[in-house]
Amino acid sequence: MPDIHLPEVELNIHTPKNTAEATIVENYVCTAENSPNIIRHITFDISGTALEGKFRTGQSIGVLPPGENEKGRPHKIRLYSVSSPTKGEKGKKHLVSTTVKRANEEVDGTFYLGVCSNYICNLKVGDKVKVTGPSGKRYLLPTNFQDFNYVFFATGTGIAPFRGMIMELFEQGFKGEAALVFGCPYRTDVIYPKYFSEMEEKHENFHYIKMISREDRRPDGSKYYVQTAIDDRSETLTPILEKENTLIYLCGMKGMETGIYWNLAQKGFLDYLDLRGDLASKSPLEWSWDEAKKLIKPSARTFEEVY
Ligand code: FAD
Ligand code: NAP
Questions:
Q1: pTM for the full model?
Q2: 164: Cβ below 6 Å to ligand 2?
Q3: Domain range holding 282?
Q4: Residue 253 falls within a domain, yes or no?
């Protein structure tokens, strides 16, 4: 396994107390138009700010929504994963993109609108927005990216960093194998479907796997989840996961990591995991779900960002 060299990054050039002003240059739905999950691709122009050229794919940008919370205090910033490559959206270092889902929820009969996601999704081209960042220093592609293969696991808007990473790899003539495993409830919720399908057609070494959880069922009646692709699509994934120079990245909803780690362990891919406690002394077949949840951590080959 080659050494993994992560790039140096600059952090928190702009902070919540010292925000930069960006201008919206793009804001469009990036799923099927009829998806009830409203997810938008948003591009900020950060020209003339100290942030220009500073965001790496895998990092996040902060957005400060205007107004106050119910306690009369100013709203706090929310983080959004950068979905453009390091050289910028469309190759322009003053453009940085993200992928935002409107976060709305009904609890006990009351419907709550997420403050910041709805604020961003409602912004129009030309509107100004207060931003911070960059944030995040390990969830990055290695500078020696050609030394590795990659399996990216995303649920929902967890796709954001992988759009940027996959663009970045292939724009630089990536020669290894890369697979994207993307999970969402319905086919209409697939994010950036055209881009990834075209990438798969264009590049023999890019594999695009969609796991749709609420339409079909697996033969045993369970849902198709990103982690079940390790079995369901093993003809594609096993040869990549078996290589000693493969890295895995996961991003999306908290909880997905345990399923992925569990399924990797059951197939013998233990090198992606850092086993704590007495897990390493037992066969994965003897582990309980609770101990797996508590005692499996990502190894150096695994990059995890879930919340
Ligand atoms: P909030 O106002 O914070 O509300 C959160 C949720 O609670 C909403 O669903 C809302 O409906 C509900 N709610 C509000 N009030 C109540 C109440 N009184 N009772 C019960 N429920 C209530 N998100 C993305 O879409 N794309 C990304 O790329 C992305 N990247 C991220 C990267 C990182 C590193 C992190 C930490 C988070 C990321 N997020 C991303 C999530 C994002 O930061 C926000 O958390 C998300 O947009 C919700 O923020 P909000 O202000 O819209 O919702
Ligand atoms: P979504 O569209 O609802 O899709 C999530 C998919 O994952 C669904 O198919 C869901 O299936 C499935 N799923 C549910 N539980 C799972 C589990 N334990 N393991 C694997 N798959 C599971 O997703 P979303 O609303 O966009 O949410 C994505 C999550 O990612 C949010 O929590 C968001 O905050 C987070 N996120 C994190 C980052 C980051 O950390 N950088 C960036 C972006 C987004 P069912 O619902 O049918 O069971």
A1: 0.97
A2: no
A3: 145-306
A4: yes
| 207 in any annotated domain | yes
Q: Whose CA is nearest to atom 25 of ligand 2?
A: 156
Which is nearest to 54 in space by CA: 87, 22, 79? 87
Task: For ligand 2, say whether the CB of 58 is within 6 Å of any of its atoms.
Answer: no
Question: Within a domain: residue 159?
Answer: yes
Nearest alpha-carbon partner for 272 in 264, 283, 282: 264
Q: Is residue 7 part of a domain?
A: no
Q: Give dist(CA 305, CA 97) in Å, integer.
A: 18
Q: How many domains does the chain have?
A: 2
**Each residue's pLDDT tens digit, 182-236:** 999 999 999 999 999 999 999 999 999 999 999 999 999 999 999 999 999 999 9
Q: Specify whether 112 is located in the same domain as 233.
A: no
Catalytic residue selected from 30, 35, 60, 81: 81
Question: HSE on the CB side for 280, CA within 13 Å?
Answer: 9
Within 10 angstroms of residue 297's Cβ, the number of other Cβ atoms is 13
- The answer, yes or no, to whether any atom of ligand 2 lies below 6 A from the CB of 87, is no
- Is 208 tagged catalytic? no
Verify that 254 and 188 share a domain, yes or no. yes
pLDDT, tens digit, 9 for 90 and up, residues 33-48 = 888 888 999 999 999 9
State whether residue 230 is helix, strand or coil.
helix
DSSP notation for 94-116? TEEEEEEE--EEEETTEEEE-HH
